[in-house]
């Protein structure tokens, strides 16, 4: 994965048979005398990233406002029951819709009974500037939960969008470091929310404080400083 700084209006050389565009990029079709061509334009300033095989491209910016994009994992709060589904706050400009059947094994007779205030770990299945986002709580390929669904207990930490994306990187030091000290569970949404759970309250508090300390917006401690900070906590 590589990265470079881009600005709105910049053209991106994104070409792939299975091209997938993430946040900050938009595809425009232009016609020429010979054929129709697709051009990828940057819509917000930030760091341009692409996957190793160049099939996935996206722009990362350390914004506090989440802009939904398809295929992203988010943590949401149920704010209303609506018809055969739920309205969910995911931190964007508009709430998202989660169908009650969008869970593994859900049927009309066997649906999840989420209440207002329930937490869900979901995947954005539809994101369009002219439509409300839609969510689902299963993996699109396997149709299995794969960790998605209602989150019970634990605590939600609010942090920067960059911190969330850092935590999703398998090479990031924080969660493996904490997991080496005590058992924990964590779910990271790219919408600025991280759900954590541990056996003891003091361990959950330590999780929260370490995530906040490592956040680039709140000091950005590196692994050495964080180890020292963790040693001062009672876990």
From TrEMBL:
Primary location recorded for the protein, binned into one broad class: cytoplasm
Keywords: Cytoplasm, Exonuclease, Exosome, Hydrolase, Nuclease, Nucleus, RNA-binding, rRNA processing
Domain Exosome complex exonuclease Rrp40 N-terminal: 19-65
Domain annotation K Homology: ranges: 154-200
GO CC term (a single one): nuclear exosome (RNase complex)
A GO molecular-function descriptor: exonuclease activity
Pfam families named in the record: KH_6, Rrp40_N, RRP40_S1
Keyword Hydrolase found: yes
GO biological process, one term: U4 snRNA 3'-end processing
CDD domains on file: KH-I_Rrp40, S1_Rrp40
Compartment list: Cytoplasm; Nucleus, Nucleolus
Family: Belongs to the RRP40 family.
Annotated protein name in UniProt: Ribosomal RNA-processing protein 40
Annotated organism of origin: Crepidotus variabilis
Phylogenetic classification of the source organism: Eukaryota, Fungi, Dikarya, Basidiomycota, Agaricomycotina
